[in-house]
Amino acid sequence: MAGSRRKRKRDNQEMDVQVASQSVNERGLMPQKRHYRQRAHANPFSDHSLEYPCSPQDFDVRAHFPAYQNTGKRPEFADIGCGFGGLLIALAPLFPDTLMLGMEIRVQVTQYVQDRISALRHQNAAEASQDPSPGNYNNVSVVRGNAMKFLPNFFAKHQLSKIFFLFPDPHFKARKHKARIISPTLLAEYAYVLRPGGIIYTITDVKDLHDWMVKHLEDFPLFERVEEDILIAEGHEKVLEAVKTSTEEGKKVERNGGSKYLACFRRLDL
After folding, report:
1. Deepest in the core among 33, 109, 168, 221, taking most CB within 10 A?
2. Hey, which residues are catalytic here?
3. Residues 183, 148: contact at Cβ < 8 Å?
4. Which pTM was predicted?
């Protein structure tokens, strides 16, 4: 009986998502989160059914960024665990000529972000033409993917200039720490896809996780910490503001009067 109830619940949730997505696609309506219910976190070690390119050269730019398909451009910003897409949406108008890709492992949350971007593109479409054009949120997209397993399948060496890890799963239990998104093994991959001078942005409301990420990044020879005031002086103030305030988690922390712990690291040219 319990299994049947769970199956019916899943079926009803999938139906909600299908109906919501159809409304977005047909009428350009903004999606509503209540139609995209999903657990807060997913196990990155589970055998999820994921599609991913064999190599970065096989990444389908046309499918994700049709307005840029003949420009030779590739994503330069990666939002790992992008959640409901708040950062992508905040940065899109600030960097209209920079392609940005969010990676999210949860099915329905990924669909929400896809529908959100689709609705924004529809609402901001150029009046003079029905064809996609640069700007108007055509520079952001999302994939359902597991960055802990397949990041090099999406991004080539030194392709990225910014990588964001905003309010990642803290995995509180010690036996779960191996699932944290910052680890020595994964830092080697981040250093590979991030170009020299590129920035990793981390933020969390969990002090223990903040200390963990800072320690591992400081111990890794290809990264050095860069203070917030230096980044502001270099012109990154709006990016830092988006990192702090644009995500659902960031807004929730603010509502609850919690603390936010920011740490940024620059990729060294060694």
Report:
1. 109
2. 169
3. no
4. 0.85
